[in-house]
Structure to design on (95 residues):
């Protein structure tokens, strides 16, 4: 599902026009992004949680040239699905 499809579905479900639905979705995404940037954890009950994981610096190689490359330490966003979401996905996939 793309962001545009999500806007369309939200607009149809809660009787908003597409412009209003887009504002709501953008605000939600921005709020989650801002919280993660501050290092906070975001939990949406029944859906899942977002947090930041630290990746250590490491040495890797470029598969094309076989040249060794140093990769700096970084922070990456991580999503863990909630139990309700897992149940929905598993039941829909098994049918």
């Amino acid at each position: 599902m793309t962001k545009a499809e999500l806007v369309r579905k939200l607009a149809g479900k809660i009787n908003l026009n597409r412009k209003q639905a887009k504002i709501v979705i953008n605000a939600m995404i921005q709020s989650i992004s801002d919280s993660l940037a501050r290092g906070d954890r975001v939990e949406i009950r029944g859906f899942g949680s977002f947090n930041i994981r630290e990746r250590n610096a490491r040495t890797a190689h470029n598969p094309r040239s076989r040249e060794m490359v140093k990769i700096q330490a970084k922070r990456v966003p991580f999503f863990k699905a909630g139990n309700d979401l897992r149940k929905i996905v598993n039941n829909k996939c098994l049918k």
Q: What stands out?
A: Helices lie at 3-13, 18-37, 83-94. Residues 7 and 22 are 6 Å apart (CA to CA). Residues 18-37 form the longest helix (20 residues).
